[in-house]
Design a protein that fits this description.
The structure holds two protein chains of two kinds. Chain A is α+β, with helices and mostly antiparallel strands. Chain A is 30% helix and 33% strand. In chain A, a hairpin with a 5-residue loop joins strand 2 and strand 3. By secondary structure, chain B is of the alpha/beta class. Chain B starts with 6 loop residues before the first strand and ends in a 40-residue tail after the last strand. The N terminus of chain B is likely disordered. The chains are: A alpha+beta, B alpha/beta.
């Protein structure tokens, strides 16, 4: 099973190495690991995608939480969440195929960010599967270069994984988070995950 | 999140106060190495809870100008003293000289070692013998890398230890400077936390954090890397020394629901077994373990690191379990309907084949580290928390039950399968040497060991009854641990008898520390079980590699003469008739003493659970040779 975890970590040298090293030392497989800044300069956020069974996922979560510089860990197994991957893709695009590619990019809500005589760069974000589908569609045109950020994720609802949020016990399911997620979203109705992801078929 | 009102407590052997807080708690500025006595959620509350005999420094953390005008090295020494450090181990070198200059005044009892690995193991032995964190001070590069093995040893066995290593000047870091090494990078996987101090202003806070991390929760080693410009740099104005550990959680009392569930399971069981590990020593939960066993009539077995937590003279004692554990402990675990693990981690040397481990048992696991729960064995009732606090609560819920049929079954196993060997060779059997040591000392000494056959025989043939009397490298299995660990234990407990039961191969790995023993006239006794082989390697080569003894035979020096050359009493015992006399001479010698006990080579450790086998499928060897051939004949193992 593929699982997404996020870890709020102290923003200092060595933390990424520690986390990455823990994964390799304990034989866990990382599909992707993304680190970036957060709203608080003291903390960074890691989004880690692992392929693991239930028991391994449990160990991954506990071993992550055990690292002193890791402040909070959450997995999204029982939590509604939004996940996104960002891609830049450079395609061979002679004048005769250029408009087809632009059309495809538009269908996927991508943006053309650079155009050359024989090439074209598209920026596309969304769930991983959507990006995969786009890549397969444009492969016949010739992919010159491709870069993806890896997945970042965030739970729906008011609860957060921020360091300043209330204590989340890492040795059990974060019940507070689940409860919050079940509550109706405040104010105007927001689009659901399905609606957000209802992109043209690929 | 941290504020400035928490006093800093020091001192290790402090009884835990009852706490009503729920675990876990974020750490703001908790008091230091108070064994489970204080839970800090709201820092302001901590002041009250430090009562109860904690030697409090009486100084709050927070913004302070008390370091003004001091160099990093001066701050380090002063804070070590404030944290209750009285002894330290190490070796000087260029990058740590500013710190060593501070040690010149001898405010600390500093032990100069002969190799930094020795310093690490000494600090480890010191910590295991006293409960206080072991302190190591070494230089950069090779000085620091030589502590990697001791750090890994302490990490595996959860021993509180802090290594302060020198580092090249911070602007040279990354330039491949002389004696530079990426020490924080190298030690990250074998420390609970490590630091590279980049600014002297961070030093007071980091030292406070290092002591908290090393000594609380599941203890472990911490390394603090100190560039020269940090130890020589001065603090000019107020700094904040409040620990900042937003990601650090200390589990205290167990969840009362889980404690209740565990007690219910135990009360309902017919054939319970207590399986007790090093965590019971670390959290000082041994009185509670003994009381629960007594109250519920629960047979109790310990791991290698748990030896001493239970009184092995008790009829309830099953002695050690596992690969070379007693047959009766292993049979009892396999037959048990409720296995209660406390402060133990289901190591592969304990469980044998996991698929065959304790097949009939519901498993209760009390551990402070949530990542230990269900890591190797699926646990039915996990209790996350400090063993002492969890058992304290559980004690009141355990029902007094006779369990007479289970106890009589256990007694039959104990009678039929005692640890045994055949005394049928011209030379002493190594077990006989340990029996002699046990007889002369009554098991009342601090013992350390190397790693291998002699370690297992020590575990089997000394009758353990006192906590912190067995000091041995369990998880990492570090050969060469015995001698330096004994020196450290002797430093920590200067008036007690400390005996290193060592093997000839283990001993030779760190034998240069004899010079340390001699320099400080530490009256450590070393009993070398000399079989002129790496005994355990020889045993495996005999059993699993067709007797092809590839590079396991040792050509040794004359150990007695070698010791004498260091100014240490050296004896040689080559006749088994002289065993008791030699041991008495060793124990009664007022100074350090090394005895070379010439032993039979071809002796194997039994029982033995070969890898891949279940605990009940052990090779009994000489054990129980006068008894029925298997537990099956004893009538219970189906």
């Amino acid at each position: 099973m593929r699982h997404i975890l996020t870890a709020t970590v102290m923003n200092e040298p060595g933390v990424l190495a520690h986390v990455a090293n823990m994964f390799s030392a304990r034989g866990f497989n990382i599909d992707s690991l993304v680190v970036g800044r957060t709203e608080d300069p003291n903390f960074s956020r890691m989004t880690i995608v692992v392929t693991a069974d239930e028991r391994t996922l449990d160990q991954v979560r506990k071993q992550l939480a055990k690292i002193v510089t890791v402040v909070k860990v959450r997995d999204y197994k029982e939590t509604p969440y939004v996940s996104r991957d960002l891609m830049l893709i450079k395609l061979s695009a002679a004048s005769n195929s250029r408009s087809e590619i632009i059309e495809l990019a538009a269908l996927f809500r991508g943006r053309v960010v650079d155009v050359g005589m024989s090439s074209l760069m598209v920026e596309l974000s969304g769930e991983e599967e959507k990006l995969d589908a786009f890549v397969e569609l444009v492969r016949p045109y010739g992919i010159r270069e491709l870069a993806r950020t890896g997945v970042i994720a965030m739970s729906r609802g008011a609860a957060t994984n921020a360091a300043t949020d209330e204590e989340v016990r890492t040795d059990q399911r974060p019940t507070a988070v689940r409860a919050a997620a079940r509550q109706p979203l405040s104010g105007k109705r927001q689009p659901t995950q399905q609606e957000l992801e209802a992109t043209p078929p690929g | 999140m941290s504020t400035s009102t928490s006093p800093i407590g020091a001192g290790a052997n402090v009884p835990a106060a009852k706490t009503t807080f729920k675990a876990p708690h974020r750490v703001g500025a908790p008091p230091l190495h108070g064994a489970g006595s204080v839970v800090v959620e709201n820092v302001a509350k901590a002041t009250d809870s430090t009562a109860g005999g904690l030697p409090v420094l009486g100084r709050p953390t927070g913004k302070t100008d008390r370091f003004n005008g001091m160099t990093g090295a001066q701050i380090l020494l002063q804070m070590l003293l404030e944290h209750g450090v009285t002894d330290a181990f190490g070796y000087p070198g260029g990058a740590i000289l500013p710190t060593f200059d501070q040690l010149y005044e001898k405010q600390l009892n500093f032990i100069l070692v002969r190799h930094e690995q020795g310093a690490g193991h000494m600090a480890d032995g010191y910590a295991r013998a006293t409960g206080k964190p072991g302190i190591v001070i070494v230089t950069s590069g090779p000085g620091a890398t030589n502590t990697v093995t001791p750090l890994a040893t302490a990490y595996m066995d959860s021993i509180p230890m802090i290594v302060f290593s020198g580092q090249v000047r911070s602007y040279l870091i990354g330039n491949d400077a002389f004696q530079e090494a990426d020490v924080t990078g190298i030690t990250r996987p074998v420390t609970k936390r490590n630091y590279l101090v980049k600014n002297v202003r961070d030093l007071p806070r980091i030292i406070n954090e290092a002591f908290i991390i090393a000594t609380t929760g599941r203890p472990g080693p911490v390394l603090v890397d100190l560039p020269v410009d940090v130890t020589t740099g001065k603090i000019e104005d107020a700094v904040d020394d409040t620990p900042y550990l937003p990601g650090y959680k200390i589990y205290k009392a167990g969840h009362s629901k889980m404690v209740k569930a565990a007690a219910d399971l135990i009360n309902a069981s017919e054939r319970p077994v207590l399986y007790v590990g090093g965590g019971v020593i670390l959290s000082q939960a041994w009185p509670h373990v003994r009381e629960i066993a007594r109250k519920g009539n629960i047979p109790t077995t310990t791991t290698l690191l748990g030896l001493g937590a239970f009184d092995e003279n008790s009829p309830l004692s099953l002695h050690m379990l596992g690969m070379h554990g007693s047959a009766y402990a292993n049979y009892a675990v396999q037959e048990s309907d409720c296995l209660i693990a406390v402060g133990a981690r289901f190591d592969d040397r304990v469980t044998g084949n996991l698929k065959l481990f304790a097949p009939k048992a519901k498993i209760v696991h009390v551990d402070i580290d949530p990542s230990s729960i269900s890591k190797n064995v699926k646990v039915d009732v996990p209790v996350v928390g400090d063993a002492r606090l969890c058992l304290e609560e559980m004690l009141g819920l355990i029902e007094s039950r006779p369990r007479s049929s289970w106890l009589s079954q256990v007694a039959r196993w104990k009678a039929a399968f005692p640890f045994a060997y055949k005394d049928d060779t011209a030379l002493s059997k190594p077990q006989a040497v340990i029996e002699a040591i046990n007889k002369v000392t009554g098991g009342k000494a601090v013992f350390t060991t190397g790693v291998g056959q002699h370690q297992m025989w020590a575990a089997q043939f000394v009758r353990w009854s006192v906590p912190r009397s067995m000091i041995t490298s369990g998880g990492l299995g570090t050969m060469g641990f015995g001698l330096p660990a004994a020196i450290g234990a002797q430093v920590g407990r200067p008036n007690e008898l400390v005996i290193d039961i060592d093997g000839d191969a283990s001993y030779m790995m760190t034998a240069m520390e004899l010079a340390t023993m001699s320099q400080y006239n530490l009256p450590v006794k070393v009993a070398i079980l000399n079989n002129r082989f790496q005994g355990m390697v020889r045993q495996w080569q005999q059993l699993f590699y067709k007797g092809r003894f590839s590079h396991s035979e040792m050509v040794n020096p004359d150990f007695a003469a070698m010791a004498e050359s260091f100014g240490i009493r050296g004896l040689r015992c080559h006749r088994k008739e002289d065993l008791i006399q030699c041991v008495e001479e060793m124990v009664n010698h007022p100074g350090p003493c090394v005895v070379d006990f010439l032993c039979e080579t071809d002796e194997n450790v039994y029982p033995m659970v070969a890898s891949g086998k279940g605990l009940h499928e052990m090779e009994l060897g000489t054990v129980g040779s006068a008894a029925p051939n298997s537990a099956r004949e004893m009538g219970t193992l189906a």
